[in-house]
Amino acid sequence: MGMGQAAGVAATLGAKFGTTPLEVPLTEIHALLREHGLIISGKA
Fold this sequence. Notes:
By secondary structure, the chain is mainly α. The chain is 59% helix and 0% strand.
């Protein structure tokens, strides 16, 4: 489930920033996932 949420967040942020999901900074993806209560392991 977490991978699907991460893909959705990447797509959403890509649309917001006017770029592709691949070009969205990982720190932005992690920040939004944490905001929605997901646990992110490791540093980023």
